[in-house]
Amino acid sequence: MLLRVGVIGVGYLGQHHARIFAGLDDVELAGVADVNKARADEIAAAYGCASFDDWNEVVERSDAVSIVTPTTTHHEIARACLLAGRDVFIEKPITERLDEARELISMADAGNRILQVGHLERYNPGIVAAAGLIQKPRFIEAERLSPFLGRGTDVDITLDLMIHDVDIVTGLVQSPVISISAVGDRVLTGKIDAVKAWIEFDNGCKALITASRLSAEKVRRLRIHQEDAFISVDYQTQEVRKYYKGDAGIAFDVISPENREPLREELKDFVSCVRGRSCPRVSGREATQALEIVLRINDLLKQ
Ligand code: NAD
User: Fold this and answer.
1) 283 C-alpha to center of ligand 1: Å?
2) How far is the CA of 205 from the centre of ligand 1 (A)?
3) What mean pLDDT is predicted for residues 280-299?
4) Distance (Å, whole) CA 12 – CA 250
5) pTM of the shown model
6) Which residues line ligand 1 (CB under 6 A)?
7) Could you say which of 1.20.140.160, 3.40.50.2000, 3.90.226.10, 3.30.360.10 is the CATH number of the domain covering 122-260+293-302?
8) Which pLDDT band, with edges at 50, 70 and 90, does 250 fall under?
9) What residue ranges of the chain are covered by domains with CATH 3.40.50.720?
């Protein structure tokens, strides 16, 4: 049966949600909404669907909804979609506040709705390939640096960029966080623009996560140190390298997984969870764990 999916917010990222849903088998892009009606019209014309400036119109016409508006609006829109009985995909971070995220989880549980959150690095082929090589990591270093583009500045960098690596690292370590320390600063936006966090886990693993929107170059890198190997992942090229002690010194293997668009993999998975009524790889609960950690980092930076 055809699944009708609507996209709310078709700015930088939402246009790609619209493009991907429009191209998926057995999915109809039921409509797009944006407060900028000219932008909604442009995207609707490109992908052949109806356009609205009021997102309620899209909710009415859809079985499932993708919310790609600024983070500050996620809670209000997702709440209304769940109340209307829709399955919901929300871009990361799930919400700005923990009480808002928890309310969405309860509503989805009570209404038996799918609630998936857009931590798309979980679908990065490099991460998927590396996951099979990683065993009991001892020290992980993640770097996510971007030139200043002015996007995502409605929230701190912790909620905008760092949350991706917090989600990946906690997913790899699978142990409770026992302590966090952080340094960071508000430089250009009045919000935290650059941050480094040191996280210690109950099983002894430690992680250093760096995020900045004040970098000359774009860097997206993860390095995992474990007993017998050092594994590096470049999120951008999707290439994985495993370094280990060989007969003639340090040797390395290069793993180049088939290049795939992580967003397409993620949205296909959402459609499959909606159809199969199965739990998404990143449910509201996982997304809220990552939110909780970045909000703890923000609290440390207020002191
Ligand atoms: P953007 O500003 O480019 O686009 C947001 C769009 O939403 C704009 O077109 C705006 O007019 C529209 N909008 C604002 N309020 C609205 C409302 N109430 N109803 C309908 N439309 C509304 O922002 P973006 O960079 O596309 O980011 C959007 C969301 O996606 C954010 O939550 C961000 O964190 C997330 N994001 C995720 C990733 C990722 O890697 N998963 C990457 C970029 C952005």
Assistant:
1) 20
2) 34
3) 97
4) 43
5) 0.96
6) 8-14, 33-36, 39, 55, 68-71, 73, 91-92, 118, 120, 151-152, 160
7) 3.30.360.10
8) very high
9) 3-120+263-281
